Amino acid sequence: MTLEDLYREVIMDHYRQPRNRGALDHANVVMEGVNPLCGDEIKLWLSIDDAGVITGASFDGHGCSISQSSASIMTAAVIGKPLADAHAVIAGFRGMMLDGAPPDEALLGDGVALEGVRKFPVRIKCAVLSWNTLKLGLDEHAAANGQHVELQHSES
Questions:
Q1: In CATH, what number is assigned to the domain containing residue 89?
Q2: Which of 45, 99, 129, 132 gives 20 to 30 Å between its CA and that of 151?
């Protein structure tokens, strides 16, 4: 089995058996993102405690296997992380996908499996939709001084 085959299996596993799917009770950050070009939609829920730790993250939505598996991978990657660490994970993933930075498995975990999507530029937006939505939600949460926030955004 090649590394590419293994990564494909990881992506399909997250698509078929998504982690953290469904609404999260007591979320204090709720975000919706859409990619109108392909129709991918994602809704994210986060629970962030007073110490600035993401204690819960979940998602729902519909779209291609790339967008849905990426959301599953992303929620698993940030649960239990302090906000600064979550921002580092987001930056590492976006750097890998958008800038061609080398994948950091210690930082991204299963997220490195999505590196192969870079070979298909039209699909990169599918992979980063949930990550961009998360970043915007965390930024809005910080601007609101930790108060409950809800937002929607559209990729262009």
A1: 3.90.1010.10
A2: 99
